[in-house]
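Nucleolar protein 10
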Amino acid sequence: MQVSSLNEVKIYSLSAGRSLPEWLSDRKKRALQKKDVDIRRRIELIQDFEMPTVSTKIKVSRDGQYIMAVGTYKPRVRCFDTYQLSQKFERCLDSEVVTFEILSDDYSKIVFLQCGRFVEFHSQHGHYYKTRIPKFGRDFSYHYPSCDLYFVGASSEVYRLNLEQGRFLNSLQTEASESNVCDINPVHFLFAMGTAEGKVECWDPRTRNRVGLLDCALSSVTADTEIEGLPSISALKFDGALNMAVGTSTGQVLLYDLRSSNPLIVKDHHYGLPIKSIQFQHQLDLIISADSRIIKMWNKDTGKIFTSMEPEHDINDVCLYPNSGMLMTANEAPKMNIYYIPVLGPAPKWCSFLDNLTEELEENPESTVYDDYKFVTRKDLENLGLAHLIGSSLLRAYMHGFFMDIRLYHKAKMMANPFAYEEYRREKIRQKIEETRAQRVQLKKLPKVNKELALKLIEEEGEEQQISKRKKQKNLPNLLKDDRFKVMFENPDFQVDEQSEEFRLLNPLVSKISEKRKRKLRILEELEAQGQEEEEEPEGKASDAESSESSDDEKGWVEEVRKQRKLLRQEEKLKRQERLKEDQQTSLKPQFFEIKEGEEFRSFKDSAKKQKLMKKTLEDRLKLEEKLGTLNVSDTTVGSKQATFKLKKSEQQRKQQEAEKRHRQERKSLRRSASHLKSRGGRGRLFH
């Protein structure tokens, strides 16, 4: 990513840097990225944002999600999805595209004007329809209220194609021999066209009559401009209801108010090249005009230059991403450029990380370094005895100091300090002494927590350094120096419990190794307490002794495990005995429980019966339920089993049902006695 600044306006080129060819494998691409710093630092905002050879036009859909570009060779259109930051589709065409227009909010309706007088319509799935106009077209505009396409080109007529009816309408007859560009005002839909004679004709689409004529060729001529021929209109753009900007083929931009025939301001690019594109930036009231060489941004009220950009390749088209500070260009090169200017506006929402990136770059600016020059301050010049050179051609003033030739700086330094070699020699001797001291055994400061673990890590680090020196490998990171594991040697909660069962069983040989470390720890603590220097270590054992010791360790591994297991069993027995003593000493107190209302206490036998019942199998329990009458199992016609069961009732429900049953029996007996009296014909009283 390259950063340029003009008039204190920073411009970030996001497509700067070399691009890798598509035919390279991923492995080779990774290898190139490791070697080349420029490839590694490049930012690929949208993947494969380029054309095979040349890009001619670039536009953004109204919803801001899709960026469409056309180019060659072969003639094609590419659509890029900003939400996915990659290419969505690519379609090849029969002939080169002069210009195109996106009719819908997304990419579902597109119209292409091609070189061979063809007009091609594309829908979401691809090619939809193709027709032809009588003369070669150069530009067209879409009139939304009537669904008319207005084509201008190498003819005096303006062809109208109605998309609703699907047929050509009567063309507009103009006074121009040829027309180059056209545009429709988005507010009142006035149609304007720029002619080869340097005039702008304005037409009303409702009445199909010309309502105005501007002679821009005459107005573009000023006292400073040199004209070789008659300027024609090469760019045209409306801004709001009343403003219109016109670009000429000689490099002038004229800003008009539609109520006046004289331009408000005339801006000259001073390159004599045709104006290719004109854009309006409303936040800062800027006009962005571009020819094939430069892009200029200037204030539309005063004409004062805001900033400018000169890309490496010729420009074909410029597209300003709406409501942002991003600018895209189509060039005479495969790669399409993307620029981000934070002053114009924020980054689009699909690449909002650019704001954070540019803020970090502004906070940490990179200092400019020149290989052949040395930056010195006024104090450095006084020390070198070169203060008398201030103001001469040997010093170039820059910021708070000066730039001087590196050869002059070295000569002056040698003369000012002739004993520099002696100082260099002393520094080298001191470094050698420090290296020899580092080989000695130094007093190590161990942490308060996990001292044995820290000592183990220090010993392992020394062994790994020796191995890495032999094998020429990179040293592994040390846990003691890593901030992520700092708490393990500071917080007592992370202390390793060597008396735990897991530690003793999983590390049976740790005891022997830990004894050596404990001895070493005691020596280090004594030295720290006395403040004495540590003596050199005694010479190591012979290799035979070391091998015998390792074999003894292997043999003693099983014995060590057995010992640890025996100790653990003894400790468990002691713990059990202590628990029994505690249980015997504790006196049991009776506990009382309250029974809920409506329930009767039967006995503890019910719970014992339930436990026995739960131990039985499902088959036994079902048989028992059948005997009690609460369950009935029968075979169905299909061959399956059908089980019907009755829910068990509580004691209170059972008593209630018995009372209801007695009540029904009493009523029945009363009804019988009453019917018996009636049959005898008497009306005697039931109760005396």
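thats it. The chain has 14 helices and 34 strands. The radius of gyration is 48 Å. bye
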